[in-house]
Amino acid sequence: MSAPAQRITIKEVAAAAGVSKGAVSIAFNHKPGLSEATRERIFTVARELGWAPNSSARSLSTRRPDTIGLALCRPARLLGLEPFYMDFISGIESVLAERSCSLLLRLVSSLDEEIALQEAWWRERQVGGSILVDFHQDDPRIAPLTSLGIPAVAVGHPDLTGGIPSIWTDDAAAVAEAVRYLAALGHRRIARVGGPAGLGHSAIRERAFQDTLRALGLPPTTPVATGFAGEEGARATRSLLLRPERPTAIVYDNDIMAVAGLGVAAEMGVTVPDELSLLAWDDSQLCRLTHPTLSAMSHDVHGFGAEVARELFDVIAGRPVRPRPVMTPSLTPRGSTASLRTAVS
């Protein structure tokens, strides 16, 4: 094991910036007495060296937790269409409203942009803490945000979040339930349309999906990874239904893709659920408005958001927290899934 990296000190930051330690303190406490050029030079050097004031040594009295940050690496158009995040954010807002707090929501185009944004939020005292979502395997945000000292809660399995306090749903157990249900209906060729391969929860779901197929003695399927938009779900469904041995059941990673898949099945003359069963991951009003209605893995997304917000306030207050799962998504059967032999419309 390699030795831990030596911690950068304020003295080293001051020397590299060509200023005194007092000037570094003035810059980070946003006090007058420095030119903007000097202040920005100090911030640039600190960022390059990976240094930030120790959060325990800095008085939090000037950093009231009246604003919480949330950055999403999603296209604005998709965010407006995706029921999951609308419900999740409404759950966060329900807790913030109780405390007269605000949510600072920003859309970013990359994780590097989010890191820079989180650093600016914390440096400029814009937020009292942040909610971190959509963790990747070996997520690049963990190291810089941990060293920054920003109070944060991660939405993701502890295997992905690097020690940041986390809350998650047991996706592996939910995927296993979905596959076992479809197998019990007599389906032998079950496919999955997953989200982007780089997302940690997509990898967890795919691993559980293949493991469950193997345990049930069912043939493995080639992963179909795509984005979360409807047109991407439609394209993936079309490719699956054009295979020589097309699946008789498909599990989707969200409701938008499942709705799009239902439309593709109708377009290609494949009857749901007589010839093809479809199962959505997130349950929403969309799933109840289709014909046939969509079976889904349901969970309380609004309550999930509220739990995340409460956990963040505990972190900000310095109360002990531990990684914990919320309720596992459960199966809600509807009209889009049925036995191949006894299918009903």
The structural domain count equals 3
Structural class: alpha/beta
Number of helical stretches of at least 4 residues: 14
End-to-end CA span: 60 Å
Stated plainly, the CATH topology of the largest domain is called Rossmann fold
Helix residue percentage: 40-55%
Largest sheet: 6 strands, parallel
The CATH H-level superfamily of the largest domain is Response regulator
Mean pLDDT reading: 88
For the record, what CATH class of the largest domain applies? Alpha Beta
Poorly predicted regions? 1-5, 55-63
CATH architecture title of the largest domain: 3-Layer(aba) Sandwich
Spatial strand arrangement across the major sheet: 2-1-3-4-5-11
Subunit organisation of the chains: single chain
Keywords: DNA-binding, Transcription, Transcription regulation
Biased composition (Polar residues): 329-345
Region (Disordered): 324-345
Domain HTH lacI-type: 8-62
How is the topology of this model organized?
Elements: H1 10-17, H2 21-28, H3 36-49, E1 67-72, H4 76-81, H5 83-98, E2 102-107, H6 111-123, E3 129-132, H7 142-148, E4 152-155, H8 158-161, E5 166-168, H9 171-184, E6 190-194, H10 200-215, E7 224-225, H11 230-241, E8 249-252, H12 255-267, E9 277-280, H13 285-289, E10 295-298, H14 301-316, E11 324-325, E12 330-332
Parallel strand pairs: 1-2, 1-3, 3-4, 4-5, 5-11, 6-7, 6-8, 8-9, 9-10
Antiparallel strand pairs: 10-12
Protein name: LacI family transcriptional regulator
Keywords: DNA-binding, Transcription, Transcription regulation
Biased composition (Polar residues): 329-345
